[in-house]
């Protein structure tokens, strides 16, 4: 997958990334999040790669990547470059 990201950076195509949201997490997730030992690579607004740590809800098993009070709901890890923290 990392090779595909590099291909799109070099080509004229645009990667449409999922945006970080400001909304509140669901109630069960706000109260029951625990850290996972992995993170995902995310392209910030400046075009650089950053690693966002993943957390998971103990009740509903929802996964989220968090950054400065914002989050991305991660439905499938196959859509991201996963790294071990």
Set out the fold topology.
Blueprint: H1 2-10, H2 27-31, E1 33-43, E2 49-57, E3 63-67, E4 70-74, E5 82-84
Describe the structure in your own words.
By secondary structure, this protein is of the alpha+beta class. Helix content is 16%, strand content 39%. It is built from 2 helices and 5 strands; from the N terminus they run ααβββββ. The protein has helices spanning 2-10, 27-31; strands spanning 33-43, 49-57, 63-67, 70-74, 82-84. Strands 4-3-2-1-5 form a 5-stranded antiparallel sheet. β1 (33-43) and β2 form a beta hairpin. It starts with a helix and ends with a strand. The model has no long low-confidence stretch (mean pLDDT 80).
TL;DR of this structure?
By secondary structure, the protein is of the alpha+beta class. Helices cover 16% and strands 39% of the residues.
Strand content: 35-45%
Helix count, DSSP H or I runs of 4 or more residues = 2
Helix share, percent = 10-25%
Structural class of the secondary structure composition?
alpha+beta
Question: What strand line-up does the widest sheet have?
Answer: 4-3-2-1-5
Sum up the structure in keywords:
single chain; 85 residues; alpha+beta; five-stranded antiparallel β-sheet; 2 helices; 5 strands; 16% helix; elongated
């Amino acid at each position: 997958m990392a090779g595909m990201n590099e291909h799109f950076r070099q080509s004229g195509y645009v990667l449409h990334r999922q945006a970080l949201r400001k909304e509140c997490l669901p109630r069960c997730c706000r109260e029951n999040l625990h850290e996972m030992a992995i993170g995902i690579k995310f392209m910030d607004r400046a075009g650089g790669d950053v690693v966002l740590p993943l957390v998971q809800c103990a009740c509903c098993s929802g996964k989220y990547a968090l950054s400065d009070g914002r989050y991305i709901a991660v439905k499938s890890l196959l859509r991201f470059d996963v790294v071990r923290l």
